[in-house]
Amino acid sequence: MTRRRELGAAVAAQLALLAVLRPGPVGWAAGAAYAAGSWSVLTSAFRRRRALGPADHVTLARVVLAGAVTALVAAHLARGGGPVAVLVGIAAAALVLDGVDGRVARRTGTVSELGARFDMEVDAFLILVLSAQVAASAGAWVLAIGAMRYVFAAAAWAAPWLRASLPPSLARKAVAVVQGVVLVVAAAGVVPHARLLVAAALGLLTWSFGRDVLWLAARRRALAGAGMGPGTRRGRRAHGARRPRVLDPVAR
């Protein structure tokens, strides 16, 4: 199956899942907008590939699940409440699959930077949507969890030294996993004082981003001290040659 057909099948699966879930007009609008946006972004991102790899198919399944979560969250917010069991179940399934695509990529020898970034962006968007769900009951401050990755990305466009590759970090991966798990638990409403868990998760995320920013700042100073400032040719390559990366690019 060619790339366009694979992506088209994912969009069809997204719409079929929405038909089963019946999230209402607001949910349908959010889900349809998500499906259209996903098609546009992924068609552009994978334009140089004839077909997707095995791990990409797993991540594509997570894209469909994230779209369902988006529709259900939008419907839940529009109604001002309601059952969340299905929402929580689908979000949990998407988080579980997050640990599958990387293993598939390694076992099939199809590890790629594009695949890792694909995986990362799905993670980031799912966390953003879940933070919106939890923020409805816990407070707007929870949105900081979902927004932090995008704020960092925006800062990286303004400050090219933030675009440099970060060294692999198990702590960074663990903190990313904690965000999803805590938000799903908080959304389920099965744990008392879940706000404290969410606050702790936000604290961990702030620490993780802060640590990476300090590392990147130290790297920038070291390069400047070695005569590789951003105004030099070598410095421009070292400081701003890459696109912004927030989560671990070698997660796959």
Radius of gyration: 19 Å
Strand content: under 5%
Mean pLDDT: 86
| Low-pLDDT segments | 241-252
Total number of helices: 9
Indicate how many domains the architecture comprises.
2
How many strands appear in the DSSP assignment?
0
- Helical percentage: over 70%
Instruction: Tell the overall outline.
Output: globular
**What series of H and E elements makes up the topology?**
HHHHHHHHH
Task: Give the N-terminus to C-terminus distance in angstroms.
Answer: 23 Å
> How would you characterize the largest beta sheet?
none
Category from helices, strands and their pairing:
mainly alpha
Explained architecture:
The protein folds into 2 domains: 1-111; 139-252, no CATH class. It is globular. It contains 9 helices and no strands. With 252 residues, the protein is mostly helical. Keywords: Membrane, Transferase, Transmembrane, Transmembrane helix. Pfam families: CDP-OH_P_transf. This is CDP-alcohol phosphatidyltransferase family protein. Belongs to the CDP-alcohol phosphatidyltransferase class-I family.
